Amino acid sequence: MKTHIGVDLHQRFCYLTAVDANGKVYKQAQVINEGAALRAWLRELPQPRQVVVEACGFWPAFERAVRPEAERVVMVHPLRVKAIASARLKNDRVDSKMLAHLSRADLLPEAWMADEQTQQLRKLTRLRIALTRQRATAKNQLQAVLHQEGFISPVTDVFGKQGRLWLGKLELSVAGRMVVDTWLQVVNHLDELIAQQTRALEQMAEQDARARWLQTVPGIGAYSAMVILAEVGNITRFDNKRALASYAGLTPSLRESAGKRKRGGIGHHGSATLRWIMLQVAQVAARHSSSARAWIAELRKRKPAQVAKIALARKLLTAVWAMLRHGVCFEESVFAGS
Length: 338
Description:
- By secondary structure, the protein is an alpha/beta fold.
- It contains 14 helices and seven strands.
- The strands form two sheets. A five-stranded mixed sheet has the order 3-2-1-4-5.
- It is globular.
C-alpha cells in the first residue's frame, strides 16, 4: 500500500501529513526545511511514498531534498487544488491533510516540474528581465527629480549622449544634483550587467538549434528566443497549439450556461513571462513582417488595437509550437495562409 504525504510548504519549514491508502493518518508534524530532517521524517513511513506539494518559488530545493526517500514527488496547481477541495477552516494541518487525501483519491491537478536544465535557463533569463526592470525604475526615479526641479528634457532620450550632456549642464539644487548623479551611476552599472547577461544568452542561443529556428520569426531575437525556450520547456508536454496558448494565458475565457456562450478577456493564468515576451514579439512583428502586418490590419477593422495585438501574439505562439514540435523555420507564406 502506498503512503501519501501532503506538504504545506513554507520558506523555513513545512507541515507534513502522511496517510495510508485507506485514509488513516500515520503522523503529522512541522519539520524545518533541511534535507537531513526531511529525509529522516520520511524514512519512518512505510514504502512506497508519494509526496505532494503545491507549486511555489522554492519547490526545486524541496524536491531535491526529499527525492531520495520518495518514490514520486508530485507538484500540483494551487488554484486548481483550492477549486477541488475548499475548506472553511484553513491552516497548515488542514492543507497538508487535504493534499494527502487528494493524492490517495488520485484527484491531483498536477503541474509540470521543470527539469534542471530548464530551471537553470529560467534563472538566467529572469535575471535579465529583472535587471531591465530595475533599470527602468532607476530611470523613472531620475525623471521624477527633473520634474520636481522644473526641467523638461529637450531631447527624446535623456540617457543618450545628448541627454547626458544636457543633464551635466543643469543647474540643479544640491540634493537634486546628488540624486541625479547617483541614479545615473545606477543606470550605468545596470547597463553593464544587462550587456553581460545579453551576451551570455546570445552565446547560448548560438549553440541551441531550437533558438535558431525561433529567430527566423520576425520579432524574435536571441534573447527573446531563450526566454521562450525557458518558459516553454519541453514542447512535447503540450499536445496541441491551443494548450501552449492557454499556458501563456493568451486564450479568451469562456462562460457557458443554459446553452448560452460568452467569451471574455484572456485568463492571465499560466506563465506571465511567456505572455509578456510574446506580446513584445507581436509588437515588433506587426512592423517588420508583411504577413503579420496584413493579418493584424485586417483584424483591427473589427477589433480594438489591444485585442488585435493579443490575437497576433497568440497566432505567433501557435507558430512557435509548430516550429519547436516539428523542427522547422518560420515561413511567411505558411503564416499568411494559416
